[in-house]
Amino acid sequence: MGLAKRIIPCLDVDNGRVVKGVQFVDIRDAGDPVEVARRYDEQGADEITFLDITATSDNRETMVHLVEEVASQVFIPLTVGGGIRKVEDIRTMLNAGADKVGINSAAVFNPEFVKEAAEKFGSQCIVVAIDAKKVSAEGEANRWEIFTHGGRKETGIDAVEWAIKMVAYGAGEILLTSMDRDGTKIGFDLELTRAISEAINVPVIASGGVGELQHLVDGVKEGKADAVLAASIFHFGEHTIEEAKRKMASAGIEMRL
Amino acid sequence: MSSVAVIDYGMGNLHSVAKALEKVGEGVEVNVTSDARTILSSDRVVLPGVGAMRDCMGEIKRLGLDKTIHEFIESGKPLFGVCVGMQVLLESSAENNGVTCLGILPGKVEYFGDELRDMKSGDRLKIPHMGWNQVHQEIEHPMWDGIAQDARFYFVHSYYAQPAHPDLIAASTNYGFQFTSAVTKDNVFAVQFHPEKSQHAGLALYANFLKWNGKTITRNHPF
């Protein structure tokens, strides 16, 4: 017995509501973030991640209040991502009650920001979010690159090399999203997850593509992920977190039940 | 009305610690403070901490809290150390090329190492040790009342405490090897994990702290 693998429901927040769309279209309302967070806490979520999907200044204010409210009721780790660009953004979120912040585009545009953040607040609260897409052709050796702006802008940066660099700069955890799989419900990109997880010595959260509970099992067993993140399968009542944990435990994965 | 001071030295998520205490402590006055008088007049003290050891010790000293913490412990009232707030109680830490700590408990703080492997599977273990792991209670203690043996708590750390005497160990946890996840001596109890992030079990630990009088009960054996 030892450390359990984690299930992390992700709440995409827009204008104070949880939303979820398939590849950023067909956005559906999934409820009030505080209520949703409380429900997942009751179901046994190991952590909760909030993603500010618009990251406008109005939405930022809403996020701070939301984190404050959730943190006074829900006693599990909370991560906030989306629009974290300055040291001050991190401080604001940690003071509101977040335990970790996710840095995405800002890390690509200014890698030194990750270093500065880790030195100031400690690696344990710095999650670097990596959005990767496969760029190798059929039959070639697998290769993935980093994309920004919700997968629309290519950067030419190799995903595995980038993950290694971000850990060297002080990332305490990597949130890895396959932009090819996000919203498709056909499962994680297991080769990508495994390539990154085996290349670095900090925990990797697999994200993008979960459509059924077996995908979570595969993410850990095949993808070697330390944690799995999912949104829509929990938001619309298809499955509870508890069901997901039982499924993973019955597959021989150590879970907190 | 009883009071509890959460020592604020600018390091870590004090919001969550204070909220957890408020949640379980009906009518308990919770003060997040660095003021020596407030701390010393409190019935109980929580010493939290997150971040790098050099910064933590630097801030504790700069604010003169090292003396305040020593004085509070001398008074015999209960003190609860959490995460880095546990590590600072020992004599020294290997973090940041070596830092001298408060020396309240004999022992040191060591790095997990980059080549950590699971004892059974041989799988490489990641650093930081992050997530929910089991806490094996090594002693009977009022702080463990009502908390299941081997209950899971939330950890996030890369360094671990190595107390100099086994009788300081209140709990242990397995991550590549058995490390000390809780220590206690007289009116001091401290844990490596984050009870404020450990849902029901964590809140139960804070509730126990608010009831604990700082004395360990010597239980009479039936024979």
Overview of the molecule:
The complex is a heterodimer of chains A (257) and B (223). Chain A has 257 residues and is an alpha/beta fold. Chain A is built from 10 helices and 12 strands. In chain A, strands 1-4-5-6-7-10-11-12 form an 8-stranded parallel barrel, surrounded by 8 helices. In chain A, helix 7 links the parallel strand 10 and strand 11. In chain A, helix 8 packs across helix 10. Helix content of chain B is 24%, strand content 30%. Chain B is built from 6 helices and 13 strands. The longest helix of chain B has 13 residues. Chain B starts with a strand and ends in a 12-residue tail after the last helix. The relative contact order of chain B is 0.17. Chains A and B meet through helix 3 of A and helix 1, strand 8, strand 9 and helix 6 of B.
Helical content of chain B (DSSP H or I, runs of 4+)? 10-25%
Strand content of chain B: 25-35%
Instruction: Note the main sheet of chain A.
Output: 8 strands, parallel, barrel
Total number of helical segments of chain B? 6
The end-to-end distance of chain A, rounded to whole angstroms, is 13 Å
- Average pLDDT confidence of chain A is 92
Cα-atom Rg of chain A, whole angstroms?
17 Å
* Proportion of residues in helical segments of chain A: 25-40%
User: Using only CA atoms, what is the Rg of chain B?
Assistant: 17 Å
Label the structural class of chain A: alpha/beta
Q: What's the order of the H and E elements of chain A? A: EEEHEHEHEHHEEEHEHEHEHH
Oligomeric category: heterodimer
Contiguous uncertain segments of 5+ residues of chain A: none
The average pLDDT of chain B is 93
